[in-house]
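chain below, 217 aa
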Amino acid sequence: MAGVITVALVDDDRMLTDGMRSWLGQAPQLRLVATATTVARLLDPAPPAAPYEPADVVLLDLRLRDDSTPGENIRRLLRSGSRVLVISTVPDRTQVIASIRAGADGYLTKDNDLPTLVAAIEDVAAGRGAHSPELAFACAHDDSPSRPRLSPRERQVLLDYASGMTLKSAARRAGITVHTAKDYLNRVKAKYRQAGRPAYTKIDLARVVREDSLDDG
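prediction:
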């Protein structure tokens, strides 16, 4: 089954789990390989179930009845080798931001249709992240101290550099000198450091761009 994306689901709503199994069965490019009511049960299934083989993408309900925290659930799944797409009943802005900063690759509410869900899973599996309207709205209205305020020029240089451009190319595109572009980039790094989210390398900067959805407009 080359090219098929394996999917696991962690949700304690049995009706949703049954519905999701039926839904994903309509998408031949996806295969649901495991379901569980908690992350602990997914990662360590009880006998006689076979040991868990990490799925490409885990659909994770935001709130589970075992009192686990979304951030820790996301981190455990990432350590297992899966990417994470959070699904929730409501677009809680604070929880959306916290989920992305914990490492989730996207956030969807459960009222989306099947094509939207399939597209989001495909984006997450490909490492692009699922940039849903819920996520874009939450990031656009995020006024927490951990989200630095960047000037338009700082943002432009950051986006270009973090996307893979050299500093020289980013400077040329912005119509400024390399020295000025470096100054803008240093200001960006200082702001993230002051916000408690240090970003020293190009990889770090690409991460904060993704976490804050800075490339969504």
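The chain has ten helices and five strands. The two ends are 37 Å apart (CA to CA).
thats it, cya
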